[in-house]
Amino acid sequence: MAPGSLLLALLSVLLLTLTQHTTDASLPPVPVQQPTRTFHASTAPLNAVLRNLIPQSLEVPPALSSTGLPSEDYVSQLSALHGENAIPPAKSKPIWIRIADEFKDTLVRILLLVALVSAVFSYMEMKEMAATGASSMKVFIEPAVIMFILVMNAAVGVKMGMGAEASLEALNSLNPSLTTLLRSSVPLPGSNARNIVPGDVILLKTGDKVPADCRILVINGGRLGADESALTGETDTVDKTTETIEGDDLPLQYQGNMLFSGTLITAGSCTAVVTSTGLKTEIGKISASVAAAKEDEEATPLQKKLDVFASKLTSIVGVICLACFFANANKFNDEAFGGSLMKGMLYYAKVAVALGVAAIPEGLPAVITLCLSLGTGRMAKKNVVVRKLPSVETLGCTSVICSDKTGTLTTNQMTATKIAYFGEHGVQERTVEGSGYAPIGSVENLERGVGMEGSGGKSCLVDFSQVAILCSDAAITGDDETNTFARVGEPTEAALCVLAEKLGAQPASSDPSSVIANFNAKKWQSAYTRSATLEFNRDRKSMGVIVSDASGAKKLLVKGAPNSIIERCTHVKLDNGKVVKMTDEMRTEIEAKVSEMAKTPLRTLALAVKTALPSSIKSYTGGPNDVANHPLLGDPSKFVSVESSLTLVGVAGIKDPARPEVAESINICTKAGIRVMMITGDAKDTAVAIARDVNIFTKEQVESGDYKAFEGREFFNLPEETQLNTLKSGNVVFCRTEPADKQKLIKMLQQLNEIPAMTGDGVNDAPALQQAAIGIAMGITGTEVAKEAADMVLVDDNFATIVAAVEEGRCIYASMQAFICFLISCNIGEIFCIFFASILGLPEPLTAMHLLWVNLVTDGPPATALGFNPPDPDVMDQTPRKPDEEIMTKWLLTRYCLTGLYVGIATVGISVWHYLSEMGLGWKDLRSWTQCGMKGYGGGAKVDCDALFSKEGRMVPQTLSLTTLVAMEMLKALSAVSVDNSLFVVPSWKNKYLLVGVLVPSLLHVFVVNARAAGFPGVSEAFGMVALDKRQWIKVLQFSAPILVLDEMLKFVGRRVNRANDLARRKARNQESLM
What we know:
By secondary structure, the protein is α+β, with helices and mostly antiparallel strands. It contains 40 helices and 26 strands.
């Protein structure tokens, strides 16, 4: 086999080997055993639940619910059957696999191949130079530099990836390590939760985290509340019961007799029996979903585009290199190579490799990583913490944002926005100013102080404020350093406290936040003492307190559901202080007002008082903890009779208001072609109202009913084709969703080729966050699990921040496209330069060292600086890019081939100009330069071949070519501040970093050119450059300046191409929505 054929065969085998092994080397997910759930602990009778927990081989303890499991041997048998109450952590990838993953990128592999081939040729050249005694190690500079770049790029990637996939491990942090077990009738506080088995009886109280899924046996004190937001996404405390729930396969929200692992007891205490542990708990199932989502996780659009781009680049470069090599086959035996075929082949193989070096942007992987890192810094300033670098760019092509409601679209601060009470002429409704827990603002047409004793006289609003403050376990606190306010206790009660402050006296403007927070509440609390509490329960739907003033006189204050309270009211107190009997007309009027407020929708609470109390209560002198033996206050069944014959003092309308900036942000999304889907645990009416407030639905859509809103399983019960058609267009609202629904929606959107961004904060959101193209966790309310599964975290939990991040993502993509196109267009010019010189038989205008100098030193800083490009004026006026749209579109490829063609012509042209004009050589002689010194060359005249084509004679035209190339690339960099907008619209000085990025390499190049004159001859010699005179510098400018004019002309055409493409995308979307 000929040496050249052997070389090509070896290269082909090497390339094939490198490109075949592209499968993911990640470790398999933690094996999860999915139990068949034919038995439901929430819907089965308690006896059946207890029987189901104990295997047939063991007897059910006769009094399990009151004594717990018996002996240790009994527990050991159950433990052997069910295993440890823990979620196995996922195994971390070894470092060597992480490093190997960094070399899976197609472009990196191409660069690795170029480095290896270059190293082979460098070794051969070193042996040849060593034979002549010349210094030879510098020939390895090129492959060494490329390998250094690849190693550094891999190091950055490994560092960013370490710890990014810890979702399953974070689930364990939700499981409490200690709990109180009941075994053999003995409470065992401080027991290790990992040792719990199904059938164990546990004792829980306020503040405890639930260690496993449990069925409630006994509720102590009448009420048990749990915070299940981490699992269900609903922020309200869930009231629990011991009753068996009717139904089959109920969502978690409706399993009122169950407690779930990782949730929090917020009120009361109970005894419960464990029904599931470890991977069989609801959290355990989520861990399985997270693992499955990891398996389904797709490459980001950027990764896909770079792989496609690199594959095409490989094909194009391979063809060009081979064409260049074989086009010169007739010159392999030239006398210039001493008649040696091998030397001739080696020379032109090196030319082909130089062409490969010219075509491959060596610094591209590092510049992309750096650009994404710079983007994360800018996003951090916008309250977005990026955990996975590629997600920065993915945001730019987001087509659907699936958002939670609470805390993202809304403030997550319950606020009283309406108040209704009776005046002499019927029900009066007033709007309450302000939002959140800041007690700043007033009530429409009411003066401050109207709700305070003394200044408010005997108005019903005084009693209203008294109930709001004293019939509550909540409080508002203020932070003097940050001037912010927060709640302690239930959100609804906190909203009433804030309303009472707005009805009360006005604190001084100089008062600190800690004083303003409870300025009026402290006055009420100092004037009255709570004697007893009538705890809330589901039956009467109200809560009451008995308070005593300084004289010992007692008063009942009650708040609760309006339908329950109004039914028990016999009188009404007016705003002038009069108490009148409630007539049927008054009852109908206030009920109509409540119904009207509920449709807004507002969560309504009625407030009432009672002074005519039974004698046993009037004479009661104990405190809240002494009521057990009282005939009325100690018996919850008597609470309804105590809370009868009430006097209504008003109704409050409360809601979690929309963030004020969200409505405009969704308008921006609509303009940018981004659809918004709200996913919430709230009821449909509430969700639709918020959707209308924030412009997800228009007012006209809501009034006509022409909107897409689904409750519970309504959507997923539709035929699959109908589901997909529903998701194709428009904004959609999903209410009362189950934990797995988000992940289903993400998969369906991805099936429709959408790029969905998903927000989430709870444990239940982790699989969907992992599955989505962009998983966005909440920084304030988000669980650690959600944050670990997400690609980025919102510091302020604000939807408007997502939109700002999308704009930043689009800007980053535009910047990346600018520097990628800049680098590629430069390389296209270099390809044309070498190809023209090779095909025309001209002396090579650039060496491999020159090309490496251009690609790394003079191209690198401007390309990096392009990462700081300002956003285009129309960045949010365009529809999202298609996921499969290439970075280098057909138009851009055409455009940069045209500019590259000019770069190639100019670079070769100035070298030809030097030989023809300055050296007086003829065109024919120049093309046959390898024949120099032979008979007949130069028309028979004596020619100094060394002065023309060797040493310094070769350096002058190469310096001219290199300097012209550098000048054109600096001018193109200045023009690349925007890919399509003219320099007159987005001038270069909008990016100050770009000015520095162009100035520094320009000065560096000038220094190298003039290094010999500056006293550094070794620098000029190392790079093969010499100083230029004034005439030559002018000629460099003449050859390079036209590139700006050409680029402006092509931008003009490009803007029209983009408008046409954007219009086509919008039409395509509209047509899809009609299908």
